[in-house]
Design a protein that fits this description.
With 211 residues, this protein is mainly α. It has five helices and two strands, in the order αββαααα. It has two domains: 161 residues; 34 residues.
Length: 211
């Protein structure tokens, strides 16, 4: 496998891992949360939240949206990894860079929009002191990182498709060697012809026998 293909495979693996982290963090730490709070009269109350990705704790819309984004992203990353193998790029041959770049570009835009949405609702929730602040930050920061990883995948796919190939360099080396061999053969042939011509000049009848 060529270095570019290794990097692409690593990027796809990171994408799957980070998407799984977003899913788990949302499901375990930001949905269906119960906590105790103390009001101004020092009375403990138990509060419940369907989703703590935003200020509307009674709505699970943001959590559902996050599940859709991360789940679809995992599927796309796995698909890109499969394409990398099907097109023989794991062996250093073939090129599906255009398709990889298109899917990667869609993934980058997909996560950039999700990151903007989660940041838009997560930051005000943090400012108002809603619980699980660190996990909210982790989720929307991870979303921005995912957008960057897909963008990096686009660049690597384009380079893999359009960059220099080892096969071309090796073929050019063989062609140059063949040209040098042909040139040496022509030089030797020309030298032999000149030698015979010089022999005829010094002896006009080199093949005649003395009488």
């Amino acid at each position: 496998m060529r270095p570019t293909s290794w990097l692409l495979s690593s990027v796809h693996l990171l994408q799957v891992g980070l998407a799984a982290f977003v899913l788990i963090a949302t499901a375990v730490h930001l949905q269906g949360i119960t906590w105790e709070s103390v009001d101004s009269d020092l009375i403990n109350t138990v509060q419940n939240a369907q989703c703590l990705l935003g200020k509307d704790a009674n709505s699970s819309t943001l959590c559902t949206y996050t599940y859709i984004v991360a789940g679809a992203s995992m599927g796309a990353s796995i698909l890109l990894s499969i394409l990398l193998c099907i097109t023989c790029d794991c062996c250093g041959r073939g090129c599906a860079g255009l398709l990889d770049a298109i899917l990667g570009g869609v993934g980058a835009a997909w996560w950039a929009i999700a990151a903007a949405v989660l940041t838009r609702y997560g930051v005000p929730a943090n400012q108002d002191g809603w619980p699980q602040e660190n996990w909210r930050i982790a989720v929307f920061v991870s979303s921005w990182v995912m957008a960057g990883l897909f963008g990096l995948g686009v660049l690597l796919s384009i380079f893999k498709c359009c960059g220099p190939r080892e096969e071309k360099v090796e073929g050019a080396g063989r062609s140059f060697k063949r040209m040098k061999e042909e040139e040496a053969a022509r030089t030797a042939q020309l030298a032999a012809q000149r030698s015979r011509y010089g022999q005829f000049q010094t002896n006009p009848r080199p093949y005649s026998s003395a009488v």
